[in-house]
Amino acid sequence: MTGGAAASLSPPPRGAAATFMTAFALAGCVGAAVAADVAVSATPQETQIARSSTKAPAPPINVANPTGHDLRGQDAYGAGFYGASRAAGARRHRGADYVAEPGEIVRAPISGVVERIGFAYRGDERYRYVELADAATGRDVRVLYVGPSVELGARVEAGAPIGRAQDLSARYPRGITNHVHVEMRENGTLADPAGVLPVASDHYGEIDA
Q1: Shortest CA distance to 199 belongs to which of 102, 109, 85?
Q2: 85-207, which class in CATH?
Q3: Helix, strand, or coil here: 185?
Q4: What is the pTM of this model?
Q5: CA-to-CA distance for 114 and 207, rounded, in angstroms?
Q6: Residues 144 and 126: beta-carbon distance below 8 Å
Q7: How far lies 165's CA from each of 41, 97, 145, 168, in Å?
Q8: Is the Cβ–Cβ distance between 169 and 64 less than 8 Å?
Q9: N or C: where does the chain have the smaller number of CB atoms within 10 Å of the terminal CB?
């Protein structure tokens, strides 16, 4: 009797079907919870916003072609590339000449501070220059034959206007290609501007007028 009573009070063994249904229900709850969490935490819109917010900004421009044009070619007074012959080979060209129409906007070849504004030739006040220096890179440039539109001590970014190209025909009447002359130094040593500045481009064409 005692053994029989104990046996009758014990819970019946779980059948295979009951075990399967319980496991299925639990799996369904867990799966639904995971799916809901993914749907809340990673919607396409939020993913797009996260990616766009981490996009790196474009690096600043630190050099520019002063006129957007090519170097001056050969004319009655010589060629415009760095090191070109001058005075029948007695000296060499100390800069690079960038073709420019009289009155055209001239732009800063480098970012820097306006350290000097002066006259290109002693005793001739018709032609001016603007000199910029950048302490961060050790570069300084002098741009000749430009009527300045900047002031001493001003901070100028590369590509920003510094003045307008002057007409050289009065000083060089035998037919010179009008240009601006750029002299560059790197840590005090003369350098070829064409090896640093961008080549010709029409990037500034729409805002030169």
Answers
A1: 109
A2: mainly beta
A3: strand
A4: 0.69
A5: 23
A6: no
A7: 59, 12, 6, 9
A8: no
A9: N
